[in-house]
Specification:
mainly beta, Porin, eleven-stranded mixed beta barrel, 2 helices, globular, disordered N terminus, DUF2490 domain-containing protein, DUF2490, signal
Length: 230
């Protein structure tokens, strides 16, 4: 009898743990972004994000993304890219699902403008999502719009804010909204870091996340020109 009670208690603990979506925890996102200049018109986007339900622990999501950027002019960039995403099954985006692996294709267009000292960036993105839940596959489509505002404080320090809305192109239209604010530091002319806070709203859940981001944008044009000459 005691063994049965202990076994039932053990099973119930596992179930409760699996159903915990981390909403009540202060989680963290650890991020790297790179724009690697290949020529005057083309650059390579590189990105890696490791997301946790708690600060630095309790795995939520791994996101790896890359793409080719075409720089129409200094204020307009078009991108075609691919993402590989591994997601824990208790995350609110896919309620009542198992762990998933997603292959994502995305098309993106960025417009930039400046008003006084404020730098504005409008990012429009379409995503085709091919998701493997283990026992079944699903294809979803989504549109995203992000308005970002950057305010330089000095040559070194700056503030960065954005709001991004996610709209599903099937089923329930509203997917999520992300509101973000951060303090940024320009380490060198092509390396910066940001420490910020993200409020992530889903239809039935809300997440608070610390964000640590590193942005590295090397100019590889000289490297490629040397290879061509050799």
């Amino acid at each position: 009898m005691k063994f049965r009670l202990l076994f039932l208690l053990f099973i119930s603990t596992l179930v409760l743990t699996a159903q915990d979506n981390g909403e009540d925890q202060l989680g963290s996102w650890h991020m790297y972004f790179g724009t690697n200049k290949l020529s005057d018109k083309y650059s390579l986007h590189t990105e890696a994000q490791l997301r946790y339900y708690e600060n630095g622990k309790n795995f939520n999501q791994l996101l790896l993304r890359t793409g080719i950027n075409y720089h129409i002019n200094p204020n307009a960039i078009a991108t075609l890219g691919y993402g590989h995403i591994t997601t824990d099954g208790s995350f609110e985006e896919f309620p009542n699902e198992t762990n998933s692996i997603e292959h994502r294709i995305f098309e993106q267009f960025i417009l930039k403008n400046k008003v006084w000292e404020f730098n504005f960036e409008h990012r429009y993105r379409l995503e085709q999502r091919f998701i493997d839940f283990g026992d079944r596959n699903d294809t979803q489509h989504r549109a995203r719009y992000r308005l970002q505002v950057t305010l330089p404080l000095t040559d070194i320090f700056f503030l960065n804010f954005y709001d991004e809305i996610f709209l599903n192109l099937q089923d329930q239209v509203f997917g999520q909204n992300r509101l973000y604010g951060a303090l940024g530091i320009n380490v060198t002319h092509n390396l910066s870091t940001q420490l910020g806070y993200l409020k992530n709203h889903f239809p039935t859940a809300h997440y608070d996340r610390l964000q640590i981001g590193v942005f590295y944008n090397p100019d590889l044009r000289k490297l490629f020109s040397k290879k061509e000459q050799s």
